């Protein structure tokens, strides 16, 4: 069958908006929640900073690899498109299936849960679940208005969030009461870095960095995608890595580890120590606004993957339909339904463990696919090449494999749930007739 018409990129989003989408996808739930799950087992300022630095290096290496793939094969869909070309359409479909079902819906649910928790720091009169549900529904409604409205909303929310973090870092450095924490290595730190808790904590860290590949899911909507998509993922990832290391240093500098341990709302705890109780409540409100940016970015990106799946898989064809203003409305509403189910039925940690294993596995295969394509298609046009090849992709693969092995060992039920979702995708692939050849794109 004929393939869908080529997208008109002349009216697409700019490099600034594409970078904003990457930053907004990355700076979300994880940075304001995950430190509380790390300091209990890793009570060292140096080790915590090293942990976030390792995560940043891993994400940046992955971004470099994805940049080459996006420039060589410019089509929306992210891992779905890349893995279909590097291995087999079935492998790509499974990655796309994960993105369409939980890859974006679960992080949206996590961000909404965190937003509800932080909103509780402002007032306890509204149940957190009601706050979470209201926000995801309103943000979805915004994105039904079209790309231009979504882009304006996204840019405003993202740069407001960045400004918030920069203010938080500056004030924490200048006026916060200093805790007795050292960021220089001390005896026993190397043992902590090579311990299972470090690898498990890296799961939370990599969840915080998740989203560095966001621009590759919406290639069809980006102007000059072969130039702007690689730049967006590289610039966005590098910038966020610096922010994460600085922000976690401030959290540890102003708040005792004993108060941070086990807490989801670590940003509120730190803000209390910087600004006092009233200032902490105001900061929690600003963090809520920042989380809206993350929810918005993932609400924009996720349905585009489902839409591309619908172009190629007849069973999912209804999700390929777009409105007059270019919105894949059915895919958008399907994602909203999954988010609501997750909000009603799952806890924060279980959702995180479930989705992160699957996300990391898809990224692992995609970066490995870059190496494979270098061997099988050496003459493929590559307007952008992965800097530091083959060291940077191998570094990403090594860190990812180490992390996934420990996650499977320590959290087998959540990891197996992710594998079960993969199996369900394989079944759907087998029973569904195909309507287009992904190799054409």
From TrEMBL:
What membrane topology is annotated for this entry?
Answer: Multi-pass membrane protein
Q: What are the protein's GO molecular function terms?
A: L-amino acid transmembrane transporter activity
Name the Pfam families for this protein. AA_permease_2
Alphabetized InterPro entries for the sequence: AA/rel_permease1, AminoAcid_Transporter
One GO CC term on file: membrane
Coiled-coil residue windows: none
Keyword Membrane listed? The answer is yes
State where the protein is found.
Membrane
Q: Where are the transmembrane segments?
A: 12-33, 45-69, 90-114, 126-144, 156-176, 196-219, 231-251, 282-306, 327-348, 354-374, 386-404, 416-432
Major site of localization recorded for this protein: membrane
Reply yes or no: does the keyword Cytoplasm apply. no
Going by the UniProt record, its keywords in alphabetical order are: Membrane, Transmembrane, Transmembrane helix
- Reading the lineage from the top rank, the first entry is Bacteria
The identity of this protein, by name, is: Amino acid permease
Species the sequence originates in: Brevifollis gellanilyticus
Q: What is the lineage of its organism?
A: Bacteria, Pseudomonadati, Verrucomicrobiota, Verrucomicrobiia, Verrucomicrobiales
